[in-house]
Amino acid sequence: MLKSLAQNYNGERITALILTGMGRDGAEGMAELKNNGAYGIIEAKESALVYGMPSATAAKGAYDEILNINDIAARLIEIVEG
Known about the structure:
Elements lengths: L1 H7 L6 E4 L6 H11 L3 E5 L8 H9 L4 E3 L1 H13 L1
Parallel strand pairs: 1-2, 2-3
Helix pairs in contact: 1-2, 2-3
């Protein structure tokens, strides 16, 4: 899904999240989005039930912030309200 966004939309208008989960596909998609100017947030290890996908994203350096799950909603509101 993130790769599709990267290929079809201006990344500067996208804020993407990587939350708890396994695999690398989200990390690859986030890297493409970041290359297109998107803003990326990944869930912190402390709150992720499974840190696989957030860890893969962090390893690629494809993020702007790492936040605890309890802080993500408030941060999204800040971003949207600009």
